[in-house]
Amino acid sequence: MLDLVLPAHCGGCGAPATRWCPACAAALGVRADEPHLVTPRLDPGVPVFALGRYAGPRRRAVVALKEHGRRDLAAPLAEALAAGLERMLAWGVLGRPIAVVPAPTRRAAARRRGGDPVARIAAAAARATGIGFAPALRTAGPARDSVGLGVAGRERNIAGRVRMAGPLIGEVVLVDDIVTTGATAREAVRALARGGASVSAVLTVAHA
Predict the structure, then answer these.
(1) Per-residue pLDDT of the chain (208 residues; tens, 9 = 90+)
(2) Is the overall model pTM greater than 0.85, yes or no?
(3) Which domains are seen in the chain, by residue range?
(4) Can you point out the beta strands (E) in 132-190?
(5) Phi, then psi, of 175 in degrees rounded to 5
């Protein structure tokens, strides 16, 4: 009856009668050589890794989670993120003890989305891998939505607007859903370093 009123459809491809189909789950799977090292146009000063390109089921799942209230898609995205963290630990890119720090989301965007989707998937991935979780960053000032902005515009929009919510000492990995120009990652890494943290790497679900 619920499916008749609110038909289920896959968040990655739109297939009916399922929330997340096997084909999209396979597309989001982390392969032996993933996550890949990527080079955003603005260098954050630490290695940046991404699980895949911002395209196909990966892109549609991120958009559905952030913009269309599909909270059920946090689980598969967090599972992929956890696999990426485990791979980076196995490679020695990250060491233990370490804490996952989610990239900051503007308060207005979080209110509109019914919460912070990046923090949600980051927290679930940290639990799955048995490592710490520290929501240590926030945005301050009138930063606007960065969609549609170029490299220089994104850089100006976020410059000086990422702050620490409190001191954080030790090794951390910054986690975000997408890296585009690298502007947010760079400001976040700077804020974490000023607050006493040692940022080992950035890991994102996708790169654009």
Answers:
(1) 444 445 689 999 999 989 999 999 999 999 999 999 999 999 999 999 999 999 999 999 999 999 988 999 999 999 999 999 999 999 999 999 999 999 998 665 556 666 799 999 999 999 999 999 999 999 876 555 555 556 665 656 676 678 888 778 899 999 999 999 999 999 999 999 999 999 999 999 999 9
(2) yes
(3) 30-207 (3.40.50)
(4) 132-133, 137-139, 162-164, 170-179
(5) -120, 135
